[in-house]
Every structure is written in structure tokens, then in C-alpha cells.
């Protein structure tokens, strides 16, 4: 039995497996510049975050209808359930779809079709987190927040993703203030490729309740001390870090040092179809390669529920 866990850092568009990409391409009459799944799989060699994002956005062309988003989310939930995921807080990138002419309503309603029946069908409770693309303008993010107002009963929080360097959190101060006024929870990617100062800014300027990745905090001992003191959750993604070359090899991953320092770490999959593994695979990898013992793995699983946006009673049921 895999350890029950919550997944807190998962981009639904990053769960698009090659087989489903081709199936949706055929269904929607979209031509992909790859002959078959084998040829596509060869494109999964990344140099850095940007080289991954290029493929990630390119393949999204196959996602067009409400049903496509429902199928995508259902496929993820089935795989996650098999790996012990009991609760998933799922990111989506509305701007990546609306800029291609796909209605926000089709995205949210499609995802909701799968999420609304997830407890019954997969035994997984869910939350939806809408991410702003940080390499798009703050105005576009604000327009996206306004456009999402009719769907806020389905959206728990906002996040910030895409190309990090050169797009510091402060760029989105007003958007996050507006999101807070709407009662939305706040998270942001920070310290994946960007410097430790972006983590501090996400905390102080955006008021985030979790830091996505946060890996580069390790370069700033005073920041580590603060994150420990505030019990600030970090949603780490070890296999992602290897594939995007944020760390040289999995054996070099600082997760054990981070846990020893008292940081509130969680382990997640980020974009599992692209990075070679779902949540349970990430747990297995850190166990076998980093030698984390049963107690450490249980701590990671416990942290994932504590750092989730579940209410206390729901959290107990999920665990
Ligand atoms: N980092 C930033 N943006 C992203 C990622 C990531 O790992 N995955 C999807 N969008
Ligand atoms: Zn991410």
C-alpha cells in the first residue's frame, strides 16, 4: 500500500501523457509536429525551465474542449490514486488557454467535471488553484482574475508560474492584493530558478501561504531560519529538479539537509508526464536515492496534509 499523501504542486497541463496528446490531437483535428509517441518522447530532454516550457505550451494545442480538460484531469486522478494520493491541489494556467481562443469556462467546467466526482470515483479530494503566467503582464493577470469571478466557487487560490527569472513576485503585487480581497488563498513559485530574494518577496509582498519549490532558499541561511520559524511549507519536486537541471543528480538533492534544518518540506510531482514520475514515484525516488527512512517519509506525507488547504475535519478524513 503506498503511503497516503496530499499532492500540493501539480500542473494539470503537465499531466498530458504522449498517448493522450495524440488521442486529443486526432479528436480535435490538431496536427502535432511529431509523427508518433516515440518521436514525441524524444523531445523530453530539457536544458532548463524554458526548454521544458516550450514543449509544455506547444502540446497544449490539443486541449480545446470542456471534455478534453475533463479527460485530462480524470487520467491524472486515476494515476494519482494508484500512488496513494488522497488529496490534490491542482494548478491550471488559464492564460495559456484563453490566448489560444479557448474559453475560460470550458477550462474550469471541464476540470470541474472530473474534480466534482473525484472523491466518488478516485477517493481523492481536490482544490483548484489558478496560476498567472509571470512572463505575461500584470494587466493580463488582473484581467484573468476578473474573468474568473463567475467561477470563484470552484477556485480556492491563486499561484504564479512559468519563466521565473526576470519576473519577480513584486510585478504581481496588485493582483495578489485583489485575490486576497476575493478571499482566495495565495501561493507562488519562487526560488526554482530565481534567487532567494524572490522567496522573501513572495512572502512579504504577495503574502503567500506556501512557497512552490523554494529550493534556492538554501543559499541564504537567514531565509532558511525564517522559513523554519514560520513553518512555511515548501512544495518540492525532486524529479522535476533533476529533469530541469536545477540539481545535477537526484543524489545531490538538498531534501535531506532541508529536513534536517527543520524546513517544512513536501514532495510533489510538478509535471509528471514530462518529468518521469507521479507523486508516489517521487517518494520512491527520494527513498531509494537519498536514503530517507520510514520516519522521514511519514513526516513528508504528514506535512503534505498539514500544508494543504483542507479544513481540519477534512484533513483527518483524508489521512
Ligand atoms: N515552473 C514554473 N512554471 C511551470 C512549471 C514549473 O516547474 N511547470 C509548469 N509551469
Ligand atoms: Zn511547478
Automatic annotation (TrEMBL):
Annotated residues for binding of Zn(2+): 9, 11, 189, 270
Enzyme active site: 192 (proton donor)
Enzyme class: hydrolase
InterPro entries named among the record's database cross-references: A_deaminase_dom, ADE, Ado/ade_deaminase
Cofactors, names only: Zn(2+)
Function, in words: Catalyzes the hydrolytic deamination of adenine to hypoxanthine. Plays an important role in the purine salvage pathway and in nitrogen catabolism.
Protein's recorded name: Adenine deaminase
